[in-house]
Design brief:
Layout: E1 6-10, E2 14-20, E3 26-32, E4 37-42, E5 50-56, H1 58-68, H2 72-83, E6 88-93, H3 110-114, E7 117-123, E8 126-129, E9 142-147, H4 149-160
Antiparallel strand pairs: 1-2, 2-3, 3-4, 4-5, 6-9, 7-8, 7-9
């Protein structure tokens, strides 16, 4: 199962993006309104409290992203997102057994049904930018979805088979 990145706005502070590891540890990146970032490691006993934060300058953040395999496009979308209020970017997986594995992007009708756009697909370390409606998903693909909170949640629901 692929990890889901959760994002939340922190009014007056910036945006925090978190992920929960397989072993239940929560880590995140806090991007302040002025652009500086902090790596956040959450407390084991209180997942809402940070046990440690590590300030990162732009070069350090980019180096860490490269070490973790973040493609340039995803990073650019995250930076753009900070400038556009109400528009979010999330990565949603095509899991093994998904009804959309082996099917075309157009079959999801995601944009028509939710208003959110699938702007890229990450596949085995490669970025497929602006996939067309005939693009066929593979299990393990990670869709980069841009839209409102409701739109992204709608795409996630479609992938889970909740939206028919």
């Amino acid at each position: 199962m692929s990890a889901r990145v959760e994002q939340r706005a922190l009014p007056g502070i910036g945006v925090c993006q978190d992920v929960v590891t397989r072993k239940g540890r929560r880590i995140g990146v806090l991007t302040h309104r002025d652009g500086h970032r902090e790596l956040v490691v959450y407390d084991v006993d209180d997942p809402d409290a940070a046990s440690d934060t590590i300030p990162l300058n732009s070069d350090e953040a980019n180096a860490l992203a490269e070490l973790l395999g973040a493609p340039q496009l995803v990073r650019h979308l995250a930076e753009l997102q900070q400038q556009v209020v109400g528009v979010l970017t999330e990565q949603l997986p095509i899991l093994d057994g998904s009804r959309f594995a082996g099917r075309a992007l157009g079959d999801t009708q995601a944009r028509t049904r939710t208003g959110a756009s699938i702007v890229a697909v990450l596949r085995q370390g490669e970025v497929i930018a602006s996939p067309g409606p005939s693009f066929v998903f593979n299990p393990g693909d990670m869709m980069v979805v841009v839209g409102t909170r409701e739109g992204i949640d709608g795409v996630a629901g479609i992938l889970r088979g909740e939206e028919d």
